[in-house]
Amino acid sequence: MEAALLERLETAVARLEAAVASGASLASTAPRDLDLPAAADPAIVAYEEFIAEAVGRLNIAAEKIGGKVLDATKVLAEAFAVSKDLLVQAKQLQKPASMADAQGFLKPLGDCIAKATAMTEGRRPDYFNHLKSVADSLPALAWVAFLGKDCGMSFPTAHVEESWQMAEFYNNKVLVEYRNKDPDHVEWAKALKDLYMPGLRDFVKKHYALGPVWGPSGGAAASQPKAAAPTPKAPATKAPPPPAPPSAPLFTTEKSPKSSQPKQGMSAVFQEISSKPVTAGLRKVTDDMKTKNRADRSGVVASTAAAPATPEKTSRAGSFSFKSGPPKLELQMGRKWVVENQVGKKTLAIDDCDSRQSIYVYGCKDSVLQVNGKVNNITVDKCTKFGIVFKDVVAAFEVVNCNGVEVQCQGTAPTISIDNTSGCQLYLSKESLGASITSAKSSEINVMVPSGATDGGACFASAVHP
């Protein structure tokens, strides 16, 4: 560490000597080298070493996987580098008075978080749980914005712990899905967890328990708008005289003499109404004119009435809608069964499947799917009034963004997760009673388990899952 510091100082001196030799003043070069004392702070040097080790381990695991996992990991590394730069800048800037004043200071970190979040949006991408773990974990770096106990956020150590709890739900899904399938994904998920817990949490607790160190109170503001150029004062001129009063008032309370001309507009209408009796012009309603006595007004709706308009071909699951596309039931690349946009199909079935294949069901309505065989995992996404019966699942069974689904497990399933779903009936067999059931942002979930009085084939006892 000392050798690296000496090398940086020698580089700075060489730059200063070159600037003096070229005729530049020291004052013009000082702002560029102002970050040297801050970057040499022991806490910031320790942060650099922590990032190099922890993020480097995560990046090595991501390179083995490649694809979108590697892209998301690069965004995470960029966010950690930005947080280190913010610590360096904080030592040179005046502490903001409020969170609103620090918005400009935190914008680079917010851009990185937005970039990671954008990778999870739209139609569910491959490695969604990996991308979601990264996106939900990056808000932990906002501890650099802690301004005091009254700033509206938890202390830095607690903030890191709370932020990781948001990402741990999806990180655990990665561990469960790949624990017996691919050790590279397991290593990546463990490295991501170690990066935050205990890595970042222990570092913040040791060096920045009360937040970042800010510069002197007389320094530049953290978010300082550019001062507008002063407007030159116009020469003093004599004020113009006030306008002359009108010759007659616009409104007066005095009664004006009646005009001989006839009234026009609404005045004429009201005058004509007031001059006639109230009932003038009205006709007497006789018995034969009443609706109840008319033969052509029976009150019965004719059978030729227009049929009600058919609803548009859209389905709603939770708080979203989607348009149906062409129906699919096919095996893609020998690894993934895709069942999409099936409407009103009660006899869907997948028979030729094995434990290395996965099943993804999307946009189905009023349909039932039977899975006859053992598969790796099953995901039901954006379906409404949909039923599925399966036997054995190696990794996990997931229900996401659905409304009114019925699920029956006839074999074993180690993990069953229900996310953003309204109305789910889950029937478990005796073999699947040890399944781990997790739910998030869901309601009306009922878990049916076999009754002890039978063999589990017909009678079920209900248990409401919170």
From TrEMBL:
PROSITE patterns: C_CAP_COFACTOR_C, CAP_1
Residue ranges occupied by any C-CAP/cofactor C-like domain in the UniProt entry: 326-462
Domain of life: Eukaryota
Biased composition (Low complexity): 219-237, 298-311
Ranges for region Disordered: 217-267, 281-325
Protein name from the UniProt record: Adenylyl cyclase-associated protein
PANTHER family in the cross-refs: ADENYLYL CYCLASE-ASSOCIATED PROTEIN
Pfam families reported in the protein's UniProt record: CAP_C, CAP_N, CAP_N-CM
Extent of Basic and acidic residues compositional bias: 284-297
Ranges in coiled-coil conformation: none
InterPro entries linked to this entry: Adenylate_cyclase-assoc_CAP, Adenylate_cyclase-assoc_CAP_C, Adenylate_cyclase-assoc_CAP_N, C-CAP_CF_C-like, CAP/MinC_C, CAP_C_sf, CAP_CS_N, CAP_N
Protein family per UniProt: Belongs to the CAP family.
Biased composition annotated in UniProt, kind: Pro residues: 238-248
